[in-house]
Amino acid sequence: MQSISMMDQIFRRKKLNLWLFPYEIISTGFDCGLIEFVKDGLSLDMIGRVMKERYSKNCDLYDYFRINYGKPNSDPYRKAQNNFADSLAAYSLASYILQIKDRHNANLIVTKEGHMVHIDFGFFLTDAPGKGLKFESAPFKLTEGYMRVLGGP
Q1: Structural contact between residues 115 and 40, judged by C-beta atoms closer than 8 angstroms
Q2: pLDDT for 99 beyond 80
Q3: Which CATH homologous superfamily contains domain 39-150?
């Protein structure tokens, strides 16, 4: 998180439209601590489950954005889309540079403003879950749902 915080400071200093959420982590002992809560956010996993419950079909992130922010050409949608793009780009750089692993839908939060926040950095640099030392084959996560939110390729 210290590295992500440093990246955020660099992005801000250089006035780049890149958005990170360097949340607070406080160690309270050798193997325990407190982690700041991501306010007003849902994991991509939870979004998928809630959308399926409400609409009885599989919906992706684009469907969630349309339902919550309106038509793709509306101002609220464009603002959320820009927030998503700025945070997706920033976390893609952080994931690539730090070789952050274990990026699944339970570790990716979307805030009510449309920003994406990555959580759970238990595996980074060359440490991977169940696999020991390994580099990721993909430099960052870019799904079809993300592309649809962004307006296409």
Answers
A1: no
A2: no
A3: Phosphatidylinositol 3-/4-kinase, catalytic domain (1.10.1070.11)
